[in-house]
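Model it.
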Amino acid sequence: MQSPFSSPLLSHFQLLMEAKSTLSRVLISDELRFELQMVAIFLLVMLSQLGVSLGNPRSRTVEVICATELEHNTTAYVPNFIAGMQAIADQVRATGFGLAVVGSGPDANYGLGQCHDDLSTVDCVLCYAEARTILPKCFPYRGGRIFLDGCFLRSDNYSFFHEFAGPEDKAVCGNTTRKTALFGRLAMNSLSEAAVKAPANGGFARASSMLSGSNESVHVLASCWKTLSAGDCRTCLADAAEMAAGCLPWSEGRALKTGCFLRFSDKDFLNPLLAHRHSKGIVLPVLFSVLSLLVLVGAAVAAGLLVRQRSKIQRKRRVPSDSCDSENAKRSLWKSHLNFKYSTLDTATGSFSPENKLGQGGFGSVYKGVLPDGREIAVKRLYLSNRHRASDFYNEVNMVSDVEHKNLVRLLGCCCMGPESLLVYEFVPHKSLNLFLFDPEKGRLLDWDKRLEIMTGTAEGLAYLHGNSRVRIVHRDIKASNILLDTKFRPKIADFGLARSFQDDRSHISTAIAGTLGYMAPEYLALGQLTEKADVYSLGVLMIEIITGRSNRKSNDSDQSEGIITQVWKCFQLGAAGEMIDPRMRPEDEDRWTKVKEEAARAVQVALLCAQEMPSLRPSALGALRMLQKREGALPVPTRPPFTDESTMELGDLAADISTFSSDRHLGSVATVSETSFCPR
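Modeled.
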């Protein structure tokens, strides 16, 4: 029977537990640590004698994941971190969940703390107190996250509140006992049940099942962070359930996701659900002064440790490795043919006159310029913050400078010695594809032959990046606005700001997720696993846009209830893919129009092959190019695209049935089509 506490006692009880845990970690003498811990234990005994019986706070640490980038400014970081953690603590005591944003810019602290809903207030406070004492171990890095069996805590210098997948996602398996196949089936059914129920239940669900005729049982807990939408929660838990199921046939498994937590076990670790997490309780004012004194002692010790640690950090920062790499790359570029003088580019663009501005993206603005020899150029002014370090800029220049192909925008050079970082590209007159494709009038200039050439040229450029250049390069941001058109409407892939390279002996690289929603492959979006097949997925989406003349990113004023990918898929299932093509391509000759529809229907099939859920089923960029160039012959039958609604990025059917888990994904089954026709006639 759990005894209720009043809020004041909870506050001091939490401080007691934090102080005791902190004392075991700080660098003080063994004698002093022993004496202070004895005081903490004495106070705990006093509480137990007063009839306080705690439940199971499940405060066992499962995983601590620290950021890899140093914090920006210690003087600002430490106070912001402490203030953020305290603000979350106040909210956790009240609701079991807390958010905090303290400061601004690179020194800001964004924090999220949450207990699972089956923890009482006391258990929640104890779990959060443990997490709060461990997370500072990530200092001097800018943030970190900690998973405990009863709660979660994360801190960083940017808003991560709506993230639900990332490269750090992983499964943690308990490998003490191997179970039977019957247990495995029961576990998968329970995982499916909890993952499906949670999004409609405030992001939390439990499931327990008993094996008939035995004493064995399965217990599951699923919990999403309360900042996620129901759709994102569903996607997060669906993937988490598959990750956890990979722990079978072991008796226990946990999925640690960026936006959720899932656990199964043959042991009943669940607490009884409470009707109300908070209730009236007793107050023990006699303990307040003693507890406060204990906390003050711990704070004094921690302050001394902080001063000592700060001096070490300052010594380390005198020669940071990133700075060395950056300076070496800068000197190399300064001596190479790639370097442009800042004054030359400033003059060429009219001091970056607004009249010469061609456009703006997430990493900078682009201006038209004319060099003294009459050559037209495009100059990109880059925004470099602490999250996009200068070393990345120089590495990108060195990587892309050796890449030359008729379907890639050529990098002419850069400027790295002036007041800002500039990239110099060849000037492409017709600007980007999206300016034509999605414009009602300009789109008429793109007949079928031009559109087919744009698709084949883009595929050819990707094939070169993936296999024929000096290093394998994944672009990561293939979309209509990054395809430039020359005077003859021939395509050139542009904007390598997100490009990544990797060696031939690597099957994939794990990286922070970046790109444009609607074009990102599901395995990259969910797990941060990047391969060339991520670009192929984006190519498939782009091809559907080119064929239909419609963007896959629905506008708010659109009267369509479904995204263009879903509509094209359903038309393909009905054998009417040719009906989805852009009517602006229609020639006067009806025989020619019939031929165009046949060729476009084949191109739709190639696009759907590129946009399949499973990377292994997608063709390579070279394979897609060959299928586009070959006008005859049978093509493989594509499986269903992963997202049934591109606006919410929800995975189709993934959350509805997770009972078919295995080590491979089985998400590529052919979809059924309702009787309603989604194809225009």
